[in-house]
Amino acid sequence: MHVYRNLLPGDAAPWFTARSTTRADHQFDTAGGRYIALCFFASAADASGKAAIDAALAHADLFDDVRASFFGISIDPEDETQGRVTARMPGFRFFWDFDGQISRLYGALPRDAVSASEKALRRIWVVLDPTLRVMKVVRFTQDRRDANEFVDYLRSLPPPSRFAGFEVQAPILVLPHVFDPEFCAKLMTLHETHGAKETGFMCDVDGRTVERYDHGYKRRTDHFIEDQDIIRQIQLRFIRAVLPELRKVYQFKASRMERYLVGCYRAEDGGHFVPHRDNTNKGTAHRCFAASVNLNADFDGGEVRFPEYGPRGFKPLPGEAVVFSCSLLHAVSKVTRGGRYAFLPFLYDEDGAKVREANKTFVDEGADKLQTR
Prior knowledge:
By secondary structure, this protein is α+β, with helices and mostly antiparallel strands.
C-alpha cells in the first residue's frame, strides 16, 4: 500500500529548489509575501491536467504576483519539449518535476515512488498563505468541480497583508541608540575613503557555496573593516545595546559576529536586494540573526521589508538597528535618491560556530572571503 504525505492546514509548506519556466534554480522559499496556488496537474496532455490549467488561466485577475501567484507542477517532460505550458507574467509559472521530488514532498506522489511516472499519482491543489503555510488542499474530482472550489476559496481570502484576519507585525526588533551620530559618521567615512567594492551573494552550486553577481538580484558596495580598534568599539556597542534584547525577546545568547561590513545602496547604481533569506546554504547555515544598523537618513527608498508580513517598509533612524532572524524573507527596496549606508553583520552562537566549522570545506575561496571578513 502506498504511503503519501498528507499536508494539513497550518503545516509549513516544504521548501525546495527546482528548475522552472522562469529560472534554472528557482528557490521556492523566496515566493512568500502573497497567496500561493500550487497545482499538481501531472501533465498538460491529460484532460484533467489541461482543464485545471485552463481553469486557472480563466481567472487570471487572481494571479498578479501581488495578491497571489500560480505555480503548476508538471511531471511530464513533453510539457516542456512540446511547449504545452509556458510562463505567463505576471502570475503564472511552472516547475519541471520530472523526478517527482516536489510531488513527493506535497503528497501528490507516494513517498516510496521511485519515479515521477508512478501510476499512483494524486492530482491536488494546494493553497499557501504569505508565510508559506498550508491553508487548504483540494483533491481533483471527476466532475472537475475542484477548480471551482479552489477559485471560490481564493476569492474569499482577505488581502495578503491581512491573511491572519488583521495586519501582523513582522517578528523583528527595532533598537534605537545602538550607534551614536559620531560613530555613524566614522563608519561612513571608512566606506568612502578606505576602499569599497561591489559584492555578490552566496549560493550553492554543485554542493559548494560560491559567490555570484546579478544586478537584478542585488546591487551594493561594501567596505570590510580591518581596524581592530573600530571592530572592538562595534562589539562593545552590540554587547550593550543588542545582545540583552536578543536574550530577553528570543532567549538567544549571541556570542559571535560575522563580518564587519559597511554597505552602501546608491541611487545611481539602482542599489537594492530582492527578497531572500540569509541562511539557506552551507556557507550561511550557521547564521542566526541579522542586524541592519542605518548610518544616515538622507536618502529615499532603501527600506527593509519583510514580504511575508505585508508590504510595509522600515527606515531606521541613524544609529538605529533592525534585528531579525536570518530565516525571515526580507528585501531592500531600490534606493531612488542618495545612498543608504548601513552596518550589516550576522550574529550566531557556539552551536552555530560548530556548524560553520563543519561546513568550511564546502565553501569556495571567494565566498569564504565574503563570509569571514
